[in-house]
């Protein structure tokens, strides 16, 4: 029986309030309106941003909501005017949409898109309403994706069709973590052969930076992490050296150490920790005259970065990126192809798998420290 045009009843993990575990509920998902797409979500990753919002420290976090933004699935139906995807397409949801017509999209300078920013931030669809209901209450959308549900509705600019042969239980991770790090190295930094880089934090994002740097044939790829277990992980993805900043000789800072290892400083450094002191060290470990530090980590609410202005006067550059600077609709299908050709590691990031009913385990895994990425199967 076709579900087109009808409300679908399905299971979802609902975040009723901050600081509480998600609750598996039966929810109603309304059909897509004009320029919207309803997706049967098969798999979703769990990212730190989901945990951050759920914890309640995200000042923009609003509840009750359906979280999740690292998802892959199949288009179930489309609203009026949708031409970019069709029912049956295998897709990845995009928390950084791409309308191809706003000032941002046309600038050629950024992957940020302004088209639905305001409503996405408020947790509603572009017409200011929600497509989710549970126990008579509207549930908010999250990051324009809401992949912790068996079905979701997204704007047509927030979804991209990819190779249907690509396994969705892996490609879901291209919806955030892997693409973010890989894009930061290959697009935002556009590392050139022989350049020396340092990556602070070897989680999913940092390991993806390392992978991108290796593809770009960087010189030294120095992995900096306070957890010694990350040495093996970092080297597996292409790192050339590992430094634990907590184990340096007395009087040597991580900045001194990196400057010494690279004969004056790194060409690029990346913060993949979200710690503002690490961000400062990452900037100051850059080479005088041209070294560039890229902030990827999301800092806790209210935190600020600082350094002496002289660091910038003498040529170091501080920048950052979201979703690695990748334009989702234009560039993500290419990353899926790279994965299919064996040029992009994805499977290697998956350390845990859970059925939807155990999604809270995925959050606990993340806090335990031995997890790179957990993938949740929404069909189970
Ligand atoms: N900008 C974006 O678009 C974007 C997208 C996804 C994630 N993020 C952010 O990127 C960051 C990393 O995400 P992740 O999933 O890889 O996280 P993760 O927790 O898996 O990895 C973080 C790593 O940093 C290490 N670390 C912690 N403190 C450190 C310190 N002082 N020095 C060196 N290493 C340290 C940890 O041991 C860990 O290995 C998070 O802040 C996340 O919110 C940003
Ligand atoms: Zn994320
Ligand atoms: Zn746009």
Automatic annotation (TrEMBL):
InterPro entries in the cross-refs: ADH-like_C, ADH-like_N, ADH_3, ADH_Zn_CS, ER, GroES-like_sf, NAD(P)-bd_dom_sf
GO cellular component: cytosol
Keywords: Metal-binding, NAD, Oxidoreductase, Zinc
GO molecular function per UniProt: alcohol dehydrogenase (NAD+) activity; hydroxymethylfurfural reductase (NADH) activity; S-(hydroxymethyl)glutathione dehydrogenase (NAD+) activity; S-(hydroxymethyl)glutathione dehydrogenase (NADP+) activity; S-nitrosoglutathione reductase (NADH) activity; zinc ion binding
Record's keyword annotation contains NAD: yes
Domain Enoyl reductase (ER) residues, every copy: 19-223
Cross-referenced SUPFAM superfamilies: GroES-like, NAD(P)-binding Rossmann-fold domains
Cofactor(s) this protein cannot do without: Zn(2+)
Reaction catalysis annotation: S-(hydroxymethyl)glutathione + NAD(+) = S-formylglutathione + NADH + H(+); a primary alcohol + NAD(+) = an aldehyde + NADH + H(+); S-nitrosoglutathione + NADH + H(+) = S-(hydroxysulfenamide)glutathione + NAD(+); S-(hydroxymethyl)glutathione + NADP(+) = S-formylglutathione + NADPH + H(+)
Record-listed E.C. numbers: 1.1.1.284
GO biological process, one term: formaldehyde catabolic process
NCBIfam families xref list: adh_III_F_hyde
Protein family membership: Belongs to the zinc-containing alcohol dehydrogenase family. Class-III subfamily.
Function: Oxidizes long-chain alcohols and, in the presence of glutathione, is able to oxidize formaldehyde. Also acts as a S-nitroso-glutathione reductase by catalyzing the NADH-dependent reduction of S-nitrosoglutathione, thereby regulating protein S-nitrosylation.
Protein name as annotated: S-(hydroxymethyl)glutathione dehydrogenase
């Amino acid at each position: 029986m076709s579900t087109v045009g009808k409300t679908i009843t399905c299971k979802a993990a609902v975040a009723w309030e901050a600081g509480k575990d998600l609750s598996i509920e039966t929810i109603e998902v309304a059909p897509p309106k004009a320029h919207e797409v309803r997706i049967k979500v098969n798999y979703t990753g769990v990212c730190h941003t989901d945990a951050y919002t759920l914890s309640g420290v995200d000042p923009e976090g609003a509840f009750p909501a359906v979280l999740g933004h690292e998802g892959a699935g199949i288009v179930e139906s489309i609203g009026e005017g949708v031409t970019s995807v069709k029912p049956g397409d295998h897709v990845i949801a995009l928390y950084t949409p791409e309308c191809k017509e706003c000032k941002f999209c046309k600038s050629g300078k950024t992957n940020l898109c302004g088209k639905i920013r305001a409503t996405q931030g408020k947790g509603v669809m572009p017409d200011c309403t929600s497509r989710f209901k549970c126990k008579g209450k509207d549930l908010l959308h999250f990051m324009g994706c809401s992949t912790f549900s068996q079905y979701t509705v997204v704007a047509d600019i927030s979804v991209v069709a990819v190779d249907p042969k690509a396994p969705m239980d892996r490609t879901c991770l291209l919806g955030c973590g892997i693409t973010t790090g890989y894009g930061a190295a290959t697009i935002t930094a556009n590392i050139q052969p022989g350049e020396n880089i340092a990556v602070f934090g070897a989680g999913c994002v940092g390991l993806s930076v390392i992978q991108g740097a290796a593809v770009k044939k960087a010189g030294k790829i120095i992995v900096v992490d306070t957890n010694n277990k990350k040495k093996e992980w970092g080297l597996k993805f292409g790192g050339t050296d590992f430094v634990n900043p907590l184990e340096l000789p007395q009087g040597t800072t991580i900045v001194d150490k990196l400057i010494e290892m690279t004969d004056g400083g790194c060409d690029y450094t990346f913060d993949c920790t979200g710690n503002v002191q690490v961000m400062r060290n990452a900037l100051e470990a850059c080479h005088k005259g041209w070294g560039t530090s890229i902030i990827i980590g999301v800092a806790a609410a209210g935190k600020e970065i600082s350094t002496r202005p002289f660091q910038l006067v003498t040529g170091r550059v501080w920048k950052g990126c979201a979703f690695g600077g990748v334009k989702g609709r234009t560039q993500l299908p290419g990353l899926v192809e790279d994965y299919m050709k064996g040029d992009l590691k994805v499977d290697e990031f998956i350390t845990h798998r859970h059925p939807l009913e155990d999604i809270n385990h995925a959050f606990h895994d993340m806090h335990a420290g031995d997890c790179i990425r957990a993938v949740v199967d929404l069909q189970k």
